[in-house]
Prior knowledge:
Layout: H1 3-18, E1 28-37, H2 45-59, E2 64-67, E3 82-89, H3 91-108, E4 126-130, E5 150-157, H4 161-171
Antiparallel strand pairs: 1-3, 1-5, 2-3, 4-5
Amino acid sequence: MDKQKVTQLIKEKLTASLGDKNIFSLPKLKKVTLNYRVPDARESQESLNQAQAELVAIAGQKPNVCAAKKSVSSFKLREGDPLALKVTLRGQRMYDFIEKLFNLVLPRLRDFKGMPESAFDQNGSYNLTIKDQTYFPEIDLDKINKIRPLQITLTISASSQAEAKMLLSALGFPFQKN
């Protein structure tokens, strides 16, 4: 998915549907954030390295390790323990990931009927969770030791949820049919 072609296509579709001639006020996809929780990372460095390699394969970019900010004794958690991995995609990598997500991963989901429209937040960003990382074609099934969910946030610069939904529909996001 080429960034320039996509932005031109979105501008044409959204200006026609919104009737707004100012292209700078149209909603845009700002970034895509991938969160990959690794609860067993504090016990074994090997599982953290495995999860990191999986996320590099999925996103094409090295993730940041998110550590605990403070100790919680009831959870056996110490300050600085690794908890999750996080990747923020922008630019061409973001559009490549979006194309792969919409065209390959989401149609592979079992009993897939579309994504719910209720997953928008107040700012117009869309959150979805894929419960199994093996839906991504880059993951080698022989090297996986544990199934982990992947949380994806599509951050959109929109003034309302309706505009954000129009942008995702123009990109080809599969919403549920009512």
